[in-house]
Amino acid sequence: AYIDTDVEIGNGVKIQNFVSVYKGVRIEDGVFVGPSVTFTNDLYPRAFRWDEGKITPTLVKKGASIGANSTIICGVTIGEYAMIGAGSVVTKDVPDYGFVFGIPARLKGFVCQCGMKLQDKEKEKEKNGEKVILKCLRCEKELEIDYEVYKNVIE
């Protein structure tokens, strides 16, 4: 792996072979970074024009997993316990527990802390909007997702 200067890496992070983590990336505790993942740090790269002011920060929150051969375009936040499918190109923020994949990566559902895809349990009204309750069929945990986030799932 290549780890640049001024990178923050939390405790219990697993970084696999051939990963490139460039200046401006912050990885919180318990994150998994699969083989050959690349983080970028410059939205408009040019070999003949470089300065530190061009660095765009990226944040990977606690417990997230990034699949092999994924590219993370700088400036995004990957939410807590989110999962990025192998070979994805992440160009937008990923919500907490979000499951994204593809080129570009799109929200396809939500995952549990244990890693399993969550299933819809029920939709309920709440005082200040709607929420969706999702359930893990493996560990039986339930998770509430705001409908405003949930409606972005592309099936």
Characterization of the model:
The protein has one helix spanning 147-150, and strands at 2-3, 8-9, 14-15, 20-21, 25-27, 32-33, 38-39, 58-60, 65-66, 71-72, 77-78, 83-84, 89-90, 98-101, 106-110, 119-126, 129-135, 142-146. The longest helix is centred in the C-terminal third of the chain and has 4 residues, at 147-150. Strand 17 and strand 18 (142-146) form a beta hairpin. Helix content is 3%, strand content 37%. The strands form five sheets. The protein has a six-stranded mixed sheet, with no helix packed on it. The termini are far apart. By secondary structure, it is mainly β. It is globular.
Outline:
With 155 residues, this protein is mostly beta strands. It is built from one helix and 18 strands.
Sequence-ordered SSE layout with sheet pairings:
Elements (H helix, E strand, L loop, with lengths): L1 E2 L4 E2 L4 E2 L4 E2 L3 E3 L4 E2 L4 E2 L18 E3 L4 E2 L4 E2 L4 E2 L4 E2 L4 E2 L7 E4 L4 E5 L8 E8 L2 E7 L6 E5 H4 L5
Parallel strand pairs: 1-4, 2-5, 3-6, 5-8, 6-9, 7-10, 8-11, 9-12, 10-13, 12-14
Antiparallel strand pairs: 14-15, 16-17, 17-18
